[in-house]
Amino acid sequence: MILEFNNQTKFRVNQALFKKTIAAFASVTRQPLSAIVSLAVINDQEMRKWNLIYQSCQGTTDVLSFPASEGEKRGFNHLAEQRNFLGEIVISYPQAKKQAKARGHSLNQELVILFIHGLLHLIGYDHQNVSQTKRLERMTQKIYVHQL
User: What is the pLDDT of residues 6-27, one digit of tens each?
Assistant: First the structure.
């Protein structure tokens, strides 16, 4: 799979970490090697804007996903038109850092978990109910272990 990576923060982010993760994701979920995913790592100020515009929610969040299959519905017409494009993922670096500390693991581990979460949303996984949440968590764990 192809990763388009954009770090919009002042912090160093290990792009190789995401490339390793996307390879594990492709293997476990049997995604085509020609599939493209865009990932942006941003600050909380930007995430608050994205969250308000696209989720109608006040405040920041850790990760947002924009599946290409929903491009027209969300006003991203260019996404729906690109073949092999799964979608865009946006991760808040400050939120990832806070969550890593709260959960007692490394920032890199949290970034990977958020990226996997976003990737799964791109292919239809969700967490609207307990059953969906458990399914998403099981697949997140399976991919995480596979990329180690």
Answer: 999 999 999 999 999 999 999 9
- Name the CA dihedral angle for 61, 123, 126, 63, rounded to a multiple of 10 degrees: -10
Q: What is the pLDDT of residues 94-139, one digit of tens each?
A: 999 999 999 999 999 999 999 999 999 999 999 999 999 999 999 9
Widest CA span in the chain: 41
Asked if residue 127 lies in contact with residue 5, where contact means CB atoms within 8 angstroms, the answer is no
Domains and CATH numbers, the chain: 2-147 (3.40.390.30)
Tokens at 135, concatenated: 């399914």
Report the alpha-carbon distance of residue 72 to residue 66 in Å, rounded.
11
Q: Which of 113, 117, 118, 107 is nearest to 11 (CA)?
A: 107
| pTM metric for this prediction | 0.92
Distance between CA atoms of residues 42 and 139, nearest Å:
25
Categorise residue 98: left if φ over 0, alpha if ψ from -120 to 50, beta otherwise.
alpha
Helices (H), 15-129: 15-29, 44-55, 71-74, 77-81, 93-103, 107-122
